[in-house]
Amino acid sequence: MAKTSSVEKNEKRRKLVDRYAAKRAALKAIIMDQDKPIEERFRAQLKLAALPRNSAKNRIRNRCEVTGRPRAYYRKLKMSRVALRELGNNGLVPGLVKSSW
């Protein structure tokens, strides 16, 4: 099980990303628009830099929803390999069979 503080910190980041997503997208559109004057684009860049760092989408860490483990994460299942194996052995994941040869 991961530290509770790490999981909570990641949840806080998710909320910040949701809150600032529209504002970040608008500022990025201004920055990338080559037709706008350079001064306006630079002001937009400064405003984007003033936003909280944790409001950037790439700061979110994929974590297992069962254990909070940050590594060996399956995106499709939203859980780690360890949790998947444990649930599979208990027969809680439909279609998952423990292999043996």
Automatic annotation (TrEMBL):
<dbReference type="InterPro" id="IPR018271">
    <property type="entry name" value="Ribosomal_uS14_CS"/>
</dbReference>
<dbReference type="GO" id="GO:0015935">
    <property type="term" value="C:small ribosomal subunit"/>
</dbReference>
<protein>
    <recommendedName>
        <fullName>Small ribosomal subunit protein uS14</fullName>
    </recommendedName>
</protein>
<comment type="subunit">
    <text>Part of the 30S ribosomal subunit. Contacts proteins S3 and S10.</text>
</comment>
<keyword id="KW-0699">rRNA-binding</keyword>
<comment type="similarity">
    <text>Belongs to the universal ribosomal protein uS14 family.</text>
</comment>
<dbReference type="GO" id="GO:0005737">
    <property type="term" value="C:cytoplasm"/>
</dbReference>
<dbReference type="InterPro" id="IPR001209">
    <property type="entry name" value="Ribosomal_uS14"/>
</dbReference>
<dbReference type="GO" id="GO:0019843">
    <property type="term" value="F:rRNA binding"/>
</dbReference>
<keyword id="KW-0694">RNA-binding</keyword>
<dbReference type="GO" id="GO:0003735">
    <property type="term" value="F:structural constituent of ribosome"/>
</dbReference>
<dbReference type="Pfam" id="PF00253">
    <property type="entry name" value="Ribosomal_S14"/>
</dbReference>
<dbReference type="GO" id="GO:0006412">
    <property type="term" value="P:translation"/>
</dbReference>
<dbReference type="InterPro" id="IPR023036">
    <property type="entry name" value="Ribosomal_uS14_bac/plastid"/>
</dbReference>
<keyword id="KW-0689">Ribosomal protein</keyword>
<comment type="function">
    <text>Binds 16S rRNA, required for the assembly of 30S particles and may also be responsible for determining the conformation of the 16S rRNA at the A site.</text>
</comment>
<keyword id="KW-0687">Ribonucleoprotein</keyword>
